[in-house]
Amino acid sequence: MKPLIAPSILSADFSNLAKDIEMLNRSEADWIHADVMDGVFVPNISFGFPVLEQVVKLTHKPLDVHLMIVNPEKFIPEVKALGAHTMNVHFEACTHLHRVVQQIREAGMEPAVTINPATPVSFLSDIIRDVYMVLVMSVNPGFGGQKFIEHTIVKIQELRELIACTGSKALIEVDGGVNAETGARLVAAGADVLVAGSAIFGNENPELMIHKLKNS
Fold it and tell me: What are the residues whose beta carbons fall under 8 Å from the beta carbon of 182, sequence distance 6 or more?
């Protein structure tokens, strides 16, 4: 199975976002990944729902919304209104994660949980059967263009084992430092979805880079 590719528009050219979205529409990209940052949970601010409302007008590709924010459950209605396919919330940001996962599913979206580099895979053992996907951060969240954390490969293998032994059907998504080289290693370790930002939008031929990632 080829991995799903979810380009992160955090690295897109916001002075000409429509052009980059058109490129994604032509490409082999499967989803569009949107990182929403609040400057509290992570040390940066990205974009909010007004920008995403414009993105969904320009594409029919599923939107994978990654909320790097405190109290993400407060924004379930706004994410639902976008028609998002997946709503990603951080394990570290949700005191009552099981409840939030249920609320996302009840809103008609696929619930996903994200773990930071220092969060052990074992912490997911009680929620893994209830989520559509787990996003493993392979850099510390908050900024694009960071170096890939090598231990992520081990975490993907551990997560694949946890999914197998629990009977979960969760997908494994990876975000941070993903390029042609790391992407191939992540897929070999068990990743299903690759999020890439600077590797795609910083490339002279972004559609070709998406093709390479798709064939990792």
Answer: 138, 148
Residue 142 has pLDDT above 90, yes or no: no
- Is residue 45 helix, strand or coil? strand
Task: Check pLDDT > 70 for residue 145.
Answer: no
Q: Is 192 a catalytic residue?
A: no
The domain 4-214 having CATH identifier 3.40.50.300: the answer here is no
Q: Which of 171, 185, 184 is nearest to 64 (CA)?
A: 171
Closest of 202, 200, 162 to residue 29, by C-alpha: 200
- Which of 162, 166, 200 is closest to 180 using CA atoms? 200
Of 20, 30, 38, 175, which one is the catalytic site residue?
Answer: 175
Tokens found for residue 169: 């059907």
The Cα 27–Cα 140 span in angstroms is 28
How many other C-beta atoms can be found within 10 angstroms of the C-beta atom of residue 39?
Answer: 12
- Is the pTM higher than 0.90? The answer reads yes
Task: For residues 122 and 89, give the distance between their C-alpha atoms in angstroms, rounded to a whole number.
Answer: 17
Residue 181: strand, helix, or coil = helix
**CA 80 – CA 67 distance, rounded (Å):** 13
Instruction: Kindly give the pairing relationship between strand 4-7 and strand 32-37.
Output: unpaired
* The one catalytic residue among 30, 35, 64, 192: 35
Residues of the chain with pLDDT > 70, as a percent, come to 98
Q: Is 175 a catalytic residue?
A: yes
